[in-house]
Amino acid sequence: MRQQTTGIHHVTAFVRDAQATVDFYSGVLGLRLVKKTINFDAPEVYHLYFGNEGGSPGTIITFFPWPTSRQGRIGAGQVGITTYVIPVGTMDFWQERLEKLNVSATVATRFGETFLQASDPDGLRLEIVEREEGSLSRWSFGGVPADKAIKGFGGAVLFSSAPAKTAEVLERVMGLEPIANDGEFARFKASGDLGNVIDVNVEAMEPGIGGAGTVHHIAWRAKDDEDHARWRSLVEENQLHPTPIIDRQYFNAIYFREEGGILFEIATDPPGFARDEPADSIGERLMLPEWFEEHREQIEGLLPPIQVRVLEADRG
């Protein structure tokens, strides 16, 4: 049977300031901080996860805040734009909200859809689009009520140095369906209802430079461990050199770099973010893997304090 991912599992990016990131993704965008942990390879750095009420696959954006990180440059070999999807009829709300919070935004069109495009404090490019697909969020925070909240990812715009090769991997390996081409972008669609629309540049681009304000990798969904093992075999058969399976606590992962330079991950849907803390309080406590627990006091002393807070413009 042909392997087909249902879409994006998560997107991971580099930023500089942990509190500014919390203020933007929770305060401005209304996402829930669903997990506060550390970079397992550099425990002095947070790993922050934001998503819907439960951190469902297809809604999760994650960050490594490195205060001394160089500024990156968005270009080929990266996710160029991360796309969020909102309920139909809520674009005016989001335009007014970004304006109220002094977030500069522009309107763009692609494949007949209207996108509200903006950047986070580090320059990471984001866009918002209305679509019927995807369940409504049940999370509300600050000035974002649940009926207008971001549902999750709409998808992503991939910037490739070898667009034909990237398109081939999306179609023949990941199982996405090519559905349109406007001369500037080719569009692919996965079978799920979130994180399912992927646009790829048609002409080769200049390479990007990793650093703050850039995406490190994009992760695709695997249903479970058995499905994950099949994915690894398929990637290996296509000579894309996957890593061994790595336990990331909240999902298992493999990584490989496709020929357009973009780092792909395939991640399992389970076990999820409630595996080590109650679902109603996920994201409130710093969670450490067991091999770091004995160093908790030292690690907490190295990390800057952060809090999820309602922005001043949303108070009263």
TrEMBL record:
Pfam families for the chain: Glyoxalase
Domain of life: Bacteria
Domain VOC per the UniProt entry, residue ranges: 7-131, 152-269
SUPFAM superfamilies registered for this protein in UniProt: Glyoxalase/Bleomycin resistance protein/Dihydroxybiphenyl dioxygenase (SSF54593)
PANTHER family: RING-CLEAVING DIOXYGENASE MHQE-RELATED
Protein name from the UniProt record: Glyoxalase family protein
Lineage: Bacteria, Bacillati, Bacillota, Bacilli, Bacillales
